[in-house]
Amino acid sequence: MKKIIRILSIGVLMASCTDLTENTYDVIPTEKFGSTPAQQAALIGPLYNRVGNYWPTLFWVYPSTDEMMIPTRGGDWGDGGQHVRMYTHTWDAIQDNGRFNGIWTWCYDAITAINLQLASVTEPSTVAELRALRAFFHYIALDHFGNVIIADGVSSGNPPQSTSKQVYDFIEKELLEIYPNLSETVGGAYYTRFNKFVVDMLLAKLYLNAETYTGTPQWAKVVDYTTRIIGSGKFSLPSDFFSTFSVNNQDSPEIILATAFDKTKRTGFNIQMPVLHYRQQLEFNIGNSPWNGPCAVPEFYYSFSDDDIRKNMWMVGQRYAADGTPLYDDDIPLILNPEVPALVMPGGADTRVRGARCAKYEIQKNNPLSSQDNDFVVYRLGDAILMRAEANLRLGNTAAALTDVNVIRERAGVAPYTAAQLTLNELLAERGREMAWELHKRQDLIRFGKFNDPWRFKPASPAHTKLFPIPNDQLKLNPNLKQNPGYN
To answer: Per-residue pLDDT tens for 196-244?
Structure first.
């Protein structure tokens, strides 16, 4: 990513460090900067930086799905059993508090910063953008924890806990109220920022999962809001599926919302580090040794047909150094094997090569640093098309659903579905192949009633695991919070 958005200049961000008794601020006070509409709009920049933690925060709970696993290989990735607990849905509210508290504090630290800035902003479009951003973080909290806090202003004391339905209603109301004041501009200064189309997508996601959150489905609204995006003419599917995930993906016409990364300026996107085998450092000529961790659940890898272009996101088979010579692990050829015989395996070269590794996001070659330049895609057109297809299928509009799904399959190079083939289960499988490792699968499995099903090395799990536990740290801080059922 070469287009890091700097809405706020360095001159504003940094003051003289000579007087170390100067006051410091979480937000910039309007008496110093922010007295004009243009200056108020400039204050948004630092708050968007918090969206950049979307990938590194949520990636580590993604092994709760049937797409990713982090097997223990000898002494590697044992980590006190936390990855096994995540995969088997046996996480513990106390033992695994840190992982869940990371999501909670990410959301509410961002919401607090937004509320502080909203207290001093009056320009309508800036207010709208900030409220949309605040709704986004409430949505993430709702999706993972259910009964959470509605933080719609700056206050002291212990805020009350709201029901999932109340949080849903708050998010919907906020987004609908601010919608008219949002921009329709795509790209340029609005790359990575919330405009009307990002809010259309956020509303569509809210409605897509409305039955989970409130008990009442909203499929027709999903169709309405995804159609706004699809019919806008602002986005298109590039013929090259992988271009949306390339190192320089900032110009992809498919991206609705991305978080901007740069290996030196806005670091943090380092998917190559956990997924690559140690010796693949030589394959891509990168400066740091990878960690040899997450891989595909074998059945998920096998769900891709050989003619599916998207299957090329998986690294399997013999690996080669950058100069073309075959790689070895100890004295055996480094042949990545998609078959994983156990969730906890002994040490050795044979187990270190187990599991298909994901290269959906292009691995940046000759990179001396740990971070990459790819922007992480939060929302994109392919997702919106499949969301509309699902909603139409659930509404009985099979022909419309079929048209949308086959647009996606045509780009993937696979045969179109017939009406008889397009069942809900098949649509979930197709969503998996298209949206693999984009951090939507947990939500999808819950919506389709599959999250607690058994899969390889995972027995059927109790229904309460569809929500994560309220972090123990937060329960200690706020006596108004009550733990989610099943974790007491």
So the answer is: 999 999 999 999 999 999 999 999 999 999 999 999 999 999 999 999 9
Which residues pair with residue 380 across a beta bridge?
255
The overall pTM is greater than 0.85: yes
Amino acid identity for residue 367 in this structure: N
pLDDT of residue 32: 56
User: In angstroms, how far apart are the furthest CA atoms of the chain?
Assistant: 73
How far does CA 443 lie from the centroid of its chain? Answer: 11
Distance in angstroms (rounded) separating the CA atoms of residues 289 and 299? 28
Residue 402, phi then psi, degrees to nearest 5: -60, -40
Instruction: Select from 129, 93, 89, 130 the least CA-distant residue to 112.
Output: 130
The tens digit of pLDDT for each residue in 450-472 reads 999 999 999 999 999 999 999 99
* pLDDT for 42: 74
Tokens of 466: 């569809």
What is the rounded CA–CA span in Å between residue 391 and residue 374?
31
Distance CA 59, CA 441 (A): 11
The rounded distance, in Å, linking the Cα atoms of 45 and 322 is: 39
- Residue linked to tokens 């607090």: 112
Calculated CA dihedral for residues 94, 54, 357, 85, nearest 10 degrees: 10
Residue 381 to residue 368: CA distance in whole angstroms? 33
